[in-house]
Structures are given as C-alpha cells and as structure tokens.
Amino acid sequence: MSSECTWSILVMFCFILATGAHEGTVCTVRSSKGEEVLLGSNFTFSCIFNKQCSKLIFLNGTQIQYIKKKAMSMEVSVEVVNIKEFSTFSCRCEENPEPCGIDIKPGYPPDIPQNLTCVQKMNSRNVSCIWTTGRGTIIDTTCQLRVHGDLELGYESFMNATGFCHSTFPIKSSEMTQVVVWLSVSNTLGSKTSGPHTINLINIVKPSMPEIINVSCSSRWCNLHTDNHSMNLVEIQYSAVNGISDTFQTNNKSRLNISSLHPDTTYNFQIRRKVNHTAGLWSDWSQPKQKTTKEEAPDKALDVWYLQEQKPPQSKSKCFRIFWKELNISDAKGKIQSYNISVQEQKGKRHSIIVVPPSRNQSICCYNCSVSVSAVNSEGQSPVKIIQLRFPGLVAGLLSHRPLNNHSIALFWPKLDIAGTEYVVHWYPVGNIEGIQWTRVVDTTAHITGLQPQECYQVAVTALRSSGPKMATIKGISSWQSAPEQGPDPKPLGKDTKSLRVTWNEMPQKKRRGCLKKYTVYLMDKLKGDIHKFSVDHPKTQFVISGLSPDQCYNLWVTAWTDAGEGPKGTDLPFCTLSDSERILSLVILAGGVVLLACLILLCICQFSSVHRRFLCCCRGLLPIIPDPANSKCAKTYADDQSEIKFYLDQCDSSVNEEPDNVEVEEVPYPSICTYIKSFSHESSSSDGTQITKITDIMEDYISTHGAISGGEEEDEYEGEERSLDEFKFFPSTHSPFLEPLFLTGGKLTLDVVKIDCSEFLDCT
Ligand SMILES: *[C@@H]1O[C@H](CO)[C@@H](O)[C@H](O)[C@H]1NC(C)=O
Ligand SMILES: *[C@@H]1O[C@H](CO)[C@@H](O)[C@H](O)[C@H]1NC(C)=O
Ligand SMILES: *[C@@H]1O[C@H](CO)[C@@H](O)[C@H](O)[C@H]1NC(C)=O
Ligand SMILES: *[C@@H]1O[C@H](CO)[C@@H](O)[C@H](O)[C@H]1NC(C)=O
Ligand SMILES: *[C@@H]1O[C@H](CO)[C@@H](O)[C@H](O)[C@H]1NC(C)=O
Ligand SMILES: *[C@@H]1O[C@H](CO)[C@@H](O)[C@H](O)[C@H]1NC(C)=O
Ligand SMILES: *[C@@H]1O[C@H](CO)[C@@H](O)[C@H](O)[C@H]1NC(C)=O
Ligand SMILES: *[C@@H]1O[C@H](CO)[C@@H](O)[C@H](O)[C@H]1NC(C)=O
Ligand SMILES: *[C@@H]1O[C@H](CO)[C@@H](O)[C@H](O)[C@H]1NC(C)=O
Ligand SMILES: *[C@@H]1O[C@H](CO)[C@@H](O)[C@H](O)[C@H]1NC(C)=O
Ligand SMILES: *[C@@H]1O[C@H](CO)[C@@H](O)[C@H](O)[C@H]1NC(C)=O
Ligand SMILES: *[C@@H]1O[C@H](CO)[C@@H](O)[C@H](O)[C@H]1NC(C)=O
How far apart are the CA of 269 and the centre of ligand 6, in A? Predict the structure, then answer.
C-alpha cells in the first residue's frame, strides 16, 4: 500500500509547488511495460521533458546514470534489467525541483485456479468457497466466481498474499442440490479461468460446532450430554493425562457412552459431527470438556515384607517392622487414604486392625501372629494376603555377590530349599531401614539394581519355606566404593599410668564412601618417634592401649578402612600418661572432691525449709542427743491404747509452729524386719479445734492397714492442707520416704521399734 502511495504523495506535493511556481509538469514518464511488470524482466524507463534543461533520473530518490541519445533530444531513458523489487523512478531538471515519476511493481501473472473447496454452513443459504492459484502474485489480483444460471456476473474478491481466493455466494433456491461454478483470476500480467466445477450441495454441508454440556462418569464409563442436534454421526475423541487416547464414531446419538475407561483418571473429551457417513463435512471439534472417572476399590494385593525389630526384651511379644510397596496409579484406582493392617494372634484369637495414614511401613509387636495389609481408598480396600511373622532361621556365609556396575550387584546363593521355593531378596542402606527394597524370585540368583555408589547396603535372601523362613545375609556390600573421605576423631575415655582408653564416633554415612571394614589406631611415641599400629574391627569404636610408659607423651590418631583402602586420619589426640606421683595426687583430689560434693548436697537439702525440719528430725533419730523415742512425751501419753495410738510428733522446728500436730496412727500387724513410721508434718497457722481431726483423716488415708498408700491428694477440700500436701511433690512421688508403707510388728506399736529411715531421704536429692 505504501508503495502505491509513494508516487501520488510526491506528485501531490510537487503539484502544490508547481502551482505556486505558475508552471506545468516539467516532464512525462513512460515505462515500456507499464507499472506492473513481470518479476525478473527487463524494461525501459523514459522521461520526456517539455523544455530544455539538464536532465536527471532518480531511482528511489538516488540519481542514476543514463545514456544520452541525441544531444538535443527531449527524451532520456534507462534500461532496467531483471527487476526484482518495488522501485520508484523519477526525472527532473537540475534547476527545477519539480519531478515527474512512476512506481514500478514487479509481480507474477496468476496461475490456473485449483483446489476448490466449498462449505455450506448448516442452516445457512450461503456457500463459502476457497481456491488457490498456487502462489501469491504480489501485485493486485482479482478473483471471480461465476455461478451457472446466476444472473450475477460473478462474485469478486481479492486474492490474499499467499494466493488464496475467498468467495461467498448465496443459494437462490432451496430445491437446488448442485451448483456449477467457474473460477477466474486476473491481474495486469494475465488472467486464468477454470471450470466448470460441479458442487454437490449435500457434500458440503458442515454442521455447526457441537458443545458438550455435561459429562457424567462412573469409574469405567462416561456419558456425554450434548446440545440438541440432528446429526446421525458423531465422532468422539478422548485422551487421558497418562497418554491414553482414542477416537471412535457412533451413529446412535442417544449413546454417547464411552466405556472401558480407567478408574480415577482425568479425561478430556471432544466431539464433532457429520450428517451421515456418506454425506456432508465434519464440523469443527467442540471445546474440550474434562472429567475424572470415579474411584474403584484397589483389586491388587500389596506386596508386603517384614523385618525383625529390636524391642524391649522384657515383653513377651516380638517386634517386626512391616513394609509394603505402594500400588502404582493404575493398581490403586484412586487416592490411597490409609492402610488397614490386620493383626491376628493365633493363640489368643485376638484380632486387631490398625489404620495407618499413607506410609510405607509400620512396627508391630505381637506373639505368634500373622498380619495382612490392605490399601484403602474411598471405594474400599485391596484384597488381603496374610503373611506369617516368623523369625527366620539364619544361615551364614552362603551369599556371594559380584558388582555389575556402579548401580547394580548380582547375588548368588545355593538352594536353601527344594526347587520352586520363593526367595525374597531385600536390601537397604546401612542405617536407613526405611529405604528398604525387595524383590521376589524363584531362582538362586538376583540382580539388585538402583543402588547408589559409595553407599553401604545390608542385603539378605530369605527362602520362604513351609517349615519356616531361612535367611542368609551380607552385612555390607557396595556397588562401588572408595577409601573413606575422612577419619574418626578420637577422644580419651580414661587414662592411667600405663594405659589409655580411647573412643571415637561412628563416621557419618556419606563420609564413609562404602562399607567400613576396620579402623587403624596409630600411636606415636613423641620422644622416640616410633609409630605403633593397632587394628580394630569395624563396629567397635573403643580401644584400650596398654603397656605405655608412665609420664610419657604420645600422639594418637585413627583412620577408617573400606575394602577400597584406608582413609585419611582424623584429628590428632596428643596425650601424656600420668606419672606415679600424679596418680596418687589425682586420687587424693578425687576423694576430696567427692567429700566436698557430698557436703554441698547435704547443705542444699537443708536449705529447703520443709525438708530442713524433717532432716533435723532424722538427724535427731540418728544422733545420740535425740531422746529415746520410747520415753518421749507423746509415746507415754498414748502407750496404753492398744489398738489405736495417738501421739504427737514434736515439732522439730519449733519456730515454725508452737502447736504440736496431732497424728493418728493405726497399729497394723505386719511381718517385717524393719519397722518405721512415715508421717508428714503439718504446718498450720490456724489453731482451731477441728484441725486435729482433719489431719487424722488424712493420716488414715496414708497409713492404712494394708500398709499401702491411698489417694494422698484426694483430700484437697481443705485449703489449709493443700500446702503441706503439695510439699510432697517435692519428692519423686513413689519414692518419698514419708509415703512409704507403715510396718508394725506384732500388732503393738512401741516406739522402741520405731526407726526412721533417712537413707532414702538423702538419696532423694
Ligand atoms: C534482460 O537483459 C539481459 C541483458 O541484456 C539479458 O541477458 C536477459 O536475457 C534479459 N531478460 C529477459 C527476460 O529478456
Ligand atoms: C525502493 O524503495 C522501496 C521502498 O519504498 C524498497 O522496497 C525497494 O527495495 C527500493 N528499491 C531499490 C532498488 O532500492
Ligand atoms: C450470505 O451472504 C450475504 C452476502 O455475502 C450476506 O449479506 C449474508 O449475511 C450472508 N448470510 C449468512 C447467513 O451468512
Ligand atoms: C491442491 O490439491 C492437491 C491435492 O489435493 C495438492 O496436491 C496440491 O498441492 C494442492 N495445490 C495447492 C496449490 O494447494
Ligand atoms: C489466505 O487464505 C488462506 C485460506 O483461507 C489462509 O490459510 C491464509 O492464511 C491467508 N493468507 C493471508 C496472508 O491472509
Ligand atoms: C451435569 O450433570 C450433573 C449430574 O449428572 C448435574 O448435577 C449437573 O447439574 C449437570 N450440569 C449441567 C451444567 O448440566
Ligand atoms: C433439546 O430438545 C428437547 C426436546 O427434543 C428439548 O426439550 C430441550 O429443551 C432441548 N434442549 C436444548 C438445550 O435445546
Ligand atoms: C441407540 O441407543 C439406544 C439406547 O441407548 C438403543 O435402545 C438403540 O437400540 C440404539 N440404536 C442403535 C441403532 O444402535
Ligand atoms: C455406559 O455403558 C456401560 C457399559 O458399556 C453401561 O454399564 C452403562 O450403564 C452405560 N451408561 C449409560 C449412562 O448408559
Ligand atoms: C445421508 O443423508 C442424506 C441427506 O439427508 C441422504 O440423502 C442419504 O441417503 C444419507 N445416507 C445414508 C447412508 O444414510
Ligand atoms: C502397575 O503395576 C503393574 C504390576 O503390578 C504393571 O503391570 C503396570 O504396568 C503398572 N502400571 C503403571 C502405570 O506403571
Ligand atoms: C479399615 O479398618 C477400619 C477400622 O477397623 C474399618 O472401620 C474399615 O472398614 C476398614 N476399611 C475397610 C475398607 O474395610
């Protein structure tokens, strides 16, 4: 477009100039082949001036040379060879800025029209046709479609840049089944016509784009609800995220039912339609509609395996760690919400179900039992396979292995049972039992794959024999290993004049670079400079070096070994053995320290006021200045009561309370070597008469006939007592010496036999 305008704008501009100058155009231009020329052709451009002047020719505003024909000729011309581009040629007099000129557009003549395709939209009376000439002509080209019998001369349009013509014409009569058309294309370089072309209207009917209104799905099929349509043939296309896709046609519009789908899978549906198999064109595809099929209960049993777990030895049950493999998407048939683990104990007929959230393992302690694990989704649970939890019999040294590459190892073993026995091969990185993997074979060889190089694996093969499983293990194998990356850091545990006990930490798994086999402890005598080596097998991390000389300095370091070699040393541990005199001195200091510590502890105890008093009581019982309890005031006062003795415990710390506390003690016959009274003091600021009875109640609770403690803190309805009761919490509850049962001999309490045991009291701190 801009090219077309170039000259006209220039002319208009010049015209304004020219009129201002009161002059006509200075020249006229001529092209031997017109404005539109065949691309690549030669032509002559010439200018005829209407007055004498020095004549100039420009191409795109740049002056070009020309051959003067005659000296006084009014005409100048140039031969243009092989024109390829849009070009503006112009001429003017040197003295006069007013030019004359022409735009030359190279292009092609049109080709024969071909590949006519027409479409009649359903329920439209217009037919739209597209045809092509094979290539763009570059210059303006007119397309014309003439319909036989139509009074119109033709339906015209312009060819687009890629050489396509679009024409639309109406169908005048609804009875028409055919139209005959001619096509023609023309431009200044030529014109072409083709035809007649016969169009069967029934074949060009194209239904409008259908719409899927709704999709209803079960787990295995989906039913599409579409807008109303009168077409007989529908094509359905669906694809799932997992890559499954299919296309099929149906001629039963009431059955847009897609079956054999997978549960819990998201599908994209699209449809298109057509009049029938023979007639019409396919409509455009509908907008895709997405829907997820419903879940189904998983129908595949889980692959379950178990390992023995070390658990408290006092319990009768054995403990196992149960592992299972997650179902893959197609087997799970839905989102696994939990796993139901059913534990059946054979003896007790006890049956329990443990529900665990999605995980891969679970610990179970039971005795002589079998378990099953099933995966549960919203629709149900997978079938169960019961496995007996039995400790396998161990067989040693039967397993051999050979690394295949950095990630896999071949395992071999002799037949552990009759042919056809199933073997479970499991492996996990040492220290990470959760990373367990296993495979089941009926062979006597297995390839374990997916291993990490420089990782140490524990591998075992278990023969599932009917008489009980039998297991062969290898402690540590590695597909590829190198020497450890670092050495252990030794620490002294204790030393003597002649020996040193040294320990070191287990190295972190990733620094080991394989399976550790042993450690070497190096000892260098600093004086003599000679080095001694000691080998320590792997799991041990302690070593005692003996035979050292007293009062001598050494340097010690430790290295770790894999089968691939020795790693670097860890930190140095320089140390000196004790001299004999130092040893004695250190013993003296140690003893002094212990005594000091004991004193400090005693002092601390006495700082607690509540304890303080009791402590003093105890001390009185222990020290000779304490009067004989048998002669104490309270004992004398109440000694005549045979069945029930009431006596007062003198307040040891009289500054706290002047008033004696009344404590009721029931005498209980109990066979015991040691008899003592446990009571508690009662700090009371009130002195009302009911106090005594209240305390009595409490004491009856504490000192019962069975010698057992019963609910000491139940009686918290009396505020005054709360504090003293709370004070017992100061002691670890069951070990409080004041809450120990009361033992009496012979049904009679004489204070001769009342001893107060303070040993535990002191222990409590
Ligand atoms: C254009 O002119 C050149 C040189 O004069 C000649 O070689 C060529 O064949 C001509 N091209 C046409 C299409 O006539
Ligand atoms: C002349 O100018 C047009 C743009 O106006 C450009 O496309 C064309 O290549 C130019 N022709 C030559 C020979 O430079
Ligand atoms: C059919 O074509 C005519 C002229 O091209 C146009 O005016 C009319 O809207 C068209 N009708 C339909 C239904 O497309
Ligand atoms: C016309 O159609 C034929 C076959 O359908 C094809 O081979 C040819 O390339 C088409 N021509 C153009 C110009 O598109
Ligand atoms: C010309 O029309 C054809 C057919 O409709 C279309 O595919 C093409 O993109 C059009 N080209 C341009 C440049 O518009
Ligand atoms: C799609 O179908 C479901 C059940 O079949 C219905 O509840 C829902 O309303 C429908 N939606 C539309 C847009 O028709
Ligand atoms: C589809 O057609 C039925 C009757 O054939 C009519 O009841 C219903 O409203 C129509 N639905 C639409 C969306 O046109
Ligand atoms: C179309 O489907 C309906 C029910 O969905 C069925 O009754 C009828 O037989 C089917 N027709 C054909 C031609 O398959
Ligand atoms: C879809 O087809 C399946 C079997 O292919 C059938 O069980 C189900 O009932 C059908 N659904 C509908 C809505 O017709
Ligand atoms: C297809 O539809 C057309 C028009 O409705 C009809 O004339 C023709 O017989 C149909 N063909 C078949 C195979 O049904
Ligand atoms: C799921 O696992 C089964 C075997 O258990 C296998 O046959 C199937 O191909 C797996 N499917 C996928 C999607 O991995
Ligand atoms: C899983 O165990 C729970 C707890 O006993 C039970 O309620 C639930 O029904 C079980 N799940 C299935 C699918 O049976």
Answer: 16
Each residue of 201-242: pLDDT tens digit? Answer: 999 999 989 999 999 999 999 999 888 766 678 999 999 987
Q: Which of 154-168, 310-324, 628-642, 670-684 has the highest mean pLDDT?
A: 154-168
Structure tokens at 156: 């015209």
Residue reference for tokens 């190295």: 507
**Ligand 12, pocket-test mutation among 381, 382, 384, most atoms within 8 A of CB:** 381
Q: How far apart are the first and last CA of the chain?
A: 104
Range with the poorest average pLDDT among 310-324, 564-578, 659-673: 659-673
Q: Which residues contact 74 (CB under 8 A, 6 or more apart)?
A: 48, 49, 50, 52
Q: Position of tokens 């009759």?
A: 418
pLDDT band at 19 (very low <50, low <70, confident <90, very high): very low
Strands 393-395, 470-477: pairing kind: parallel
Say yes or no: CB of residue 223 within 6 Å of ligand 9.
Answer: yes
Q: Which CATH class is domain 25-107?
A: mainly beta
Specify whether domain 304-388 bears CATH 3.90.950.10.
no
Q: How far is the CA of 453 from the centre of ligand 4 (A)?
A: 60
CA distance 764 to 757: 13
Q: Could you report the per-residue pLDDT of 276-304, keeping only the tens digit for each?
A: 888 899 999 999 999 999 999 999 999 99
pLDDT interval class at 661 (50, 70, 90): very low
pTM for the model stands at 0.62
Check if CATH label 2.60.40.10 holds for domain 490-581.
yes
Q: What residue type is 66 in one-letter code?
A: Y
Within 608-733, where are the H helices?
A: 609-622, 633-638, 690-702, 719-726
CB of 216 within 6 A of ligand 6: the answer is yes
Exposure of 71 by Cβ count < 10 A (0-12 exposed, 13-18 middle, 19+ buried)? exposed
Indicate the helix (H) or strand (E) that contains 501.
strand 500-504
Look at residue 495 in the predicted model and tell me its pLDDT.
Answer: 79
Selected residue with higher pLDDT from 155 and 311: 155
Banded pLDDT at 415 (limits 50, 70, 90): confident
Read off the pLDDT of each residue in 576-596 and give the average, rounded to a whole number: 79
At CB < 8 A and 24+ separation, what contacts does 112-119 make? Answer: 112/192, 112/194, 113/143, 113/165, 113/183, 113/184, 113/185, 113/192, 113/193, 113/194, 114/194, 116/181, 116/183, 116/197, 116/199, 118/199, 118/204, 119/204, 119/206, 119/281
Tell me phi and psi for residue 629, to 5 degrees.
-55, -30
What CATH superfamily classification does 393-477 receive? Answer: Immunoglobulins (2.60.40.10)
Among candidates 74, 25, 8, which has minimal Cα distance to 46? 74
Q: What is the largest CA-CA distance in the chain?
A: 170
Report the length, in residues, of the chain.
765
Mean pLDDT for all residues in the chain:
76
Q: Residue type at 151? A: L
C-beta 227 within 6 A of ligand 7: yes
Q: Which helix (H) or strand (E) covers residue 329, if one does?
A: helix 329-332
The CATH code of domain 208-292 reads 2.60.40.10
Q: How far apart are CA 586 and CA 548, in angstroms?
A: 19
CB 206 within 8 Å of CB 222 = no
Domain extents in the chain = 25-107, 114-203, 208-292, 304-388, 393-477, 490-581, 629-764
Q: What is the CATH number of domain 114-203?
A: 2.60.40.10
304-388 has the same fold as 208-292: yes
* Both tokens assigned to 514: 């394989």
- Strand ranges of the sheet holding 304-309, from the earlier edge strand across to the other edge: 304-309, 318-324, 361-366
Please state, in angstroms and rounded to a whole number, the distance separating the CA atoms of residues 141 and 161: 10
Pocket residue to mutate for ligand 2, from 9, 81, 87, 104, most atoms within 8 A of Cβ: 87
